[in-house]
Amino acid sequence: MRTDHLFYKLFETFPETLFVLAGTQPPAPGSYRFEFIEVKETALRIDGVLVPEAAELPYYVYKLGYSREELEAMFGLEELKNTRYFREVAQQAREQGELAVVSRLLTRRFGLLEEALLERLSQLSSAQLESLAEVLLDLADRSELEQWLQQQRPQL
C-alpha cells in the first residue's frame, strides 16, 4: 500500500470519498469502513475494501484489477453477484443481448437495416424490445415496423 498511502489514509478517514470519486451517490456517513485486506492463501493483495456496516449493503473493492477467478476466491461468487456493479453489468449485458437478437431477426426478415433504424432500436427499453420480438413476425413490411416504432414512447 506504499504507493497509495495518501489514498488509503483519505479513504480510511472518509470512506464516502470513494463513492464521490466513482461518481455515485455516497451513503450515509458511518455506513462503511475502509480496510486493507491481504488474502495470504492465494497471495492476493487488495488495496482496500469498503466493508458495509449493514448486511444488506454491497462491498466495494478499491483498485479492482483482478480476474473473475481471483475475485471468486476472495469473496465467493454469490457475494459478487450481490454487488451493485455485477447487477448493473448483468442488466446491461441482457439488454445488449436483447437488442442484438431483435436486430438480427429484423435483418433476416427485412434485409439490411439502416443506421438510423438501428439507432432507434437502441433507444428502446428492455420491455419495448421484448414487445417488438413478439410482434416482429407479424409485421408485413418495413412500413409496419416504422409504424410500430412511431407508436412507442421513450421509457425512462
From TrEMBL:
Residues 91-149 form the DUF4351 domain. InterPro entries: DUF2887, DUF4351. Transmembrane segments: none annotated. This is DUF2887 domain-containing protein. It comes from Gloeobacter morelensis MG652769. The lineage of its organism: Bacteria, Bacillati, Cyanobacteriota, Cyanophyceae, Gloeobacterales.
